Amino acid sequence: MEKLYLIDASGYLYRSYFAIRNVTNAKGESTNALFGFIRSLMKLFKDFNPDHVAAVFDGPRSSESRLKIYANYKAHREKTPTDLVYQIDWARQFCELMGIPLLSLPSVEADDTMGSIAKWAEKKDCEVYLCTSDKDLSQLVTDKVFILNTHKDNLILDSQGVEETYGVPPNKIIDFLAITGDASDNVPGLPGFGPKTAISLLKNLGSLDYILEHPQEVPGKKKQETIVQESEKAKVSRKLVTIDTAIDFPKEPNFFKLKEPDVPKLKEFYASMNFNSLLRELDQLTEDESEEVTYVLVDEENAFQKLLEILSKQKEICFDSETTDIHPIRAELVGVGFGFRKKEAWYVPVNGKLGLKRVLEGIKPLLENEKIGYYGHNIKYDRHVMANHGIKIQNICFDTILASYILNTHSRKHSLDTLSLQYFGKVKKPITDLIGKGKQEISMREVPIEQVLPYCCEDVDYTCRLKAIFEKELTERKLTSLLYDLELPLTRVLAGMERRGIYLDVPCLQKMGKEVGDQIKIIEKEIYDLAGETVNLNSPKQLGILLFEKMQIPPPKKTATGYSTNVQVLETLKFEYPIAGKIIEYRILEKLRSTYIEALPQEVNENTHRIHPTFNQSIAATGRLTCQDPNLQNIPVRTELGRKIREAFRPEKQGWSYLSADYSQIELRLLAVMSNDPTLITAFQNHEDIHAHTASTVFNVPLDEVTREQRYQAKAVNFGIIYGQQAFGLARELGIDVKEANVFIEKYFERYPKVKEFLQSCKDQAHQTGKAVTLFGREREIPEINSKNMMLRSAAERLSVNTPFQGTAADLIKKAMLDVDHRIRQEKLVGYMILQVHDELIFEIPDFEIVAFEALVKEAMEKVLKLKIPLAVDISIGKNWREC
Fold first, then answer.
1. What's the mean pLDDT in 788-810?
2. For residues 421 and 414, what is the distance between their CA atoms, to the nearest angstrom?
């Protein structure tokens, strides 16, 4: 046993618990501390590859011995959080599965166990590494015992390192801690004696005993008095911080020998915790027996003909394309994969002997055959790729990414790699193994065909396997309608929108960019004048030093890495310190310039001269569509500059306009319907201003006497209720007292009792079933709803209230998109849909179709779902997006 690594397991767990937030398993149980603990241990093993090791935990009733010395030891420490207690047990379980020896001795703290082992091992001429960030253990450091802080880039402290870090050598650490005390453990120390004083006294006077015996030699009368009055506290403190090195433990070197991990059980453990990244790493370290599969390369005419014959006889075929680009409109075909049962797939390259022309000629009749259904993983992408080459896939029958999303809307991980790992324990080869990444990245076209073959066939194979599982689960959970009647048909509509794209007036944006650049320069100068110097305004660190040190503004908030200069901090300062307001202005302009004015022209396709964003159906847990490359749903509309950016989006052709159709107060209408509150329903049926109506009801004033302020407050409550907002959040939004906000909410619920009942029923249902459901039957699992962690549970309850409204509104507009698109095609109109922004649809239409489109869109959207109250759609027409 040449080296021994002792892990402060309790310290690692506590650190991870507070450093990592909101990580749970499928049951909603917190796994944050466990995940951080495992990650820390895996890093230690990777960096140091130890043979002898032990994970040391605080034992049951670990504080017992020190409580006999000082009754208030750790007295102000809160009880171990409930959701940390069971993670400690899981950490022990992990150590056993990993083959890591562990120690948890009754009535003994981890420090004492580690200290006793260190002294024993040192006598055996063994180097000991105490893996901890606890300064108390520095007292043990010798020429054989070291501190190893893995959380600080594997910082190793020897005796000199301890002195450089704490100001005193290891043999004076006990006296140092006895003087300064330790707030975390409620060790009293000498009141008013900080680290600098302690270091100075120990350097000049030698020891705590000498200091206590010669108080007159300590500079300062007040300090001399403290030493005389509090000497007993210092002696008690010394006993508390002294590590007991006489603890009994197994004294056999073999006890500390790292054993072989139980890989199958470790896999089960990781899977139960939803630790997919750890599962993947484990699989890469262990060589499992390869499954027998048949993956065939088709690059000869005879083989190609034979494959086309086999495929033409199938009812459903799995299809996957390998391409040159992640963006579907730019992607060029490299090869296609086909399959229709598990463990068997074919790959047809277009950069081989057959060539692009022959492959396209052969697969076109197959893909355009309406009698054959095609499926894939995110098949909308493959639909685009084929369209780029003049092929229109006629019959799309399934999509595993959409099925996974419908079954697990709460998860953001629906990639084929993740699902293959989750359902089959299969670690798929990542694409970066083929094409590299960063500056070394190459095109898939440059990858040797024999390497692309297994990669593509594996994709096809595991998509086939997933389809079989998902079809069954969708049927069992009665979710088939969401896939076949909503999401799958919507892929065709979205693909059409993506291919058409949207025109951007680049010169208009460039002109705006110059104006914004000039504005930014003016604001920069104003900031520098107020500051009296120049700094990098994009550096939070430099700004923090400028504001809170050089300008001596009192900092409202400080973070672990320095001063916070986030928008909340600046907002609180701007009224008293004008520089804070100017920095906010600068940041808004700079973000708009970099995110939109400079970035959007880069997104214009050089062939079509339009921007082609991608709409995602499998990201937002509420069911909403998201937009990327670029995200056009986020262009601000509340600021003048945001509106000006929208001005640059306009119809490409002369004599064309934009038509915007926006659902009016859709979520509040759904609240009225779903809660069945008669007062709210009547207000909507009478087409009243719902915010004024709420103000009138809550403030008990006639409708025509409602003030603007009252309407504004009522609006905040109306929308706050939907998002599960509590009094604290409302108070912050309205700038009022929390008690006042609470009274406001209480009044609201008095007037709308059915709303209160419904919101409570949403929470109750979620607590019972672990999920929230929309009117269309979409389910969102909320695993944290019964968490023992109050913050997680409260956030989950807000989701249980919000999801039925947001999710139903999301489903509603998707259904409207299908109905509107159907009507446009039915009536053979020239105009088309180009954008969806949450509750709004935008169309690019010739002016001669304005009247027809206005009637068609309004009618289709308002009649999409029959409810007790009418759905209302606001239509606006403009020559650019801003005018809408």
1. 90
2. 11
